[in-house]
Amino acid sequence: MCAVLRSHLCILLFVANSSFAYGECKAFPPPREALKASEAVFVGRALKVQEGKTENRFEFEVHYAWKGVNAPKVFVSSSAMIGCGGGTTFSQGHLYLVYAINHNGSLWTGSCSRTTSLDWAGEDLAALDRPATAFNIEPEPGPKEDGDVDSPAAPLGFLVFLVMTFAIGVGVGWLFAHRYPNSRPIFAEVNHE
User: Fold this and answer.
1) Fold for domain 2-134?
2) pLDDT at position 10
3) CB crowding 119-149: b at 16 or more within 10 Å, else e
4) Which of 96, 128, 118 is nearest to 31 (CA)?
5) Phi, psi for 110 (deg, rounded to 5)
6) Domain ranges across the chain
7) Are 68 and 43 in contact (CB under 8 A)?
8) What is the pLDDT of residue 179?
9) Burial of 76 (0-12, 13-18, 19+ CB in 10 A)
10) Residue 24 and residue 111: Cα distance in Å, rounded?
11) How high is the pLDDT of residue 24?
């Protein structure tokens, strides 16, 4: 019971600190003002989601940070109550621009912050200065672009093309030989008498 009350109190404090009242968000501040008001601002990929009754906790792989993040991975919490005036959710594997506040030593974000998918963060990225920190993120393992010199897909594609061409040629030859069994071969010996 005490833990539930404490969680509700945390959410209430988050609501008060996030500049929204009565379940509705006030207008978003401009990006530079939101940067000043936030404890942490970063671009990161959502890695893991831990869902709870009153709060959700998300692990991010940080790519760029404007402030408040000094490690390549960070945890951010949000209210489990999704919607206007509540929490927000993140899809695993997607990139986000996150504006977070500090609440009792933890980073929190919500639907009333400027937090958004990186696909929709053009205005913010244009308005903010260059990030203070860029983390050296290793690219995910996987095939390279087709046609890339180091790509195993380039020689494999050419090999498949050769095999298919040979198979079609053999098939056409077989059909021709069986359809016209008495025809003379193309490369028959010619008598020059």
Assistant:
1) OB fold (Dihydrolipoamide Acetyltransferase, E2P) (2.40.50)
2) 44
3) eebeebeeebeebebebeeeeeeeeeeeeee
4) 128
5) -155, 180
6) 2-134, 143-193
7) no
8) 76
9) buried
10) 10
11) 61
Residue 56 structure tokens: 């959700």
Please state the length of the chain: 193
Residue-level pLDDT at 170? 81
Alpha helices in the chain (DSSP H): 2-17, 31-37, 122-127, 153-179
Asked if 43 and 131 touch (Cβ cutoff 8 Å), the reply is: yes
Rounded to two decimals, what is the model's pTM? 0.59
Mean pLDDT by 10 residues, the chain (193 residues): 43 43 69 96 94 90 95 91 68 94 92 91 93 78 48 56 80 75 62 59
- Write the CA distances from 31 to 78, 97, 185, 190, integer angstroms: 20, 11, 78, 85
CA distances from 51 to 5, 48, 88, 120 (A): 18, 10, 12, 25
The answer to whether the beta carbons of residues 88 and 81 sit under 8 Å apart is no
Looking at residue 169, its pLDDT comes to 79
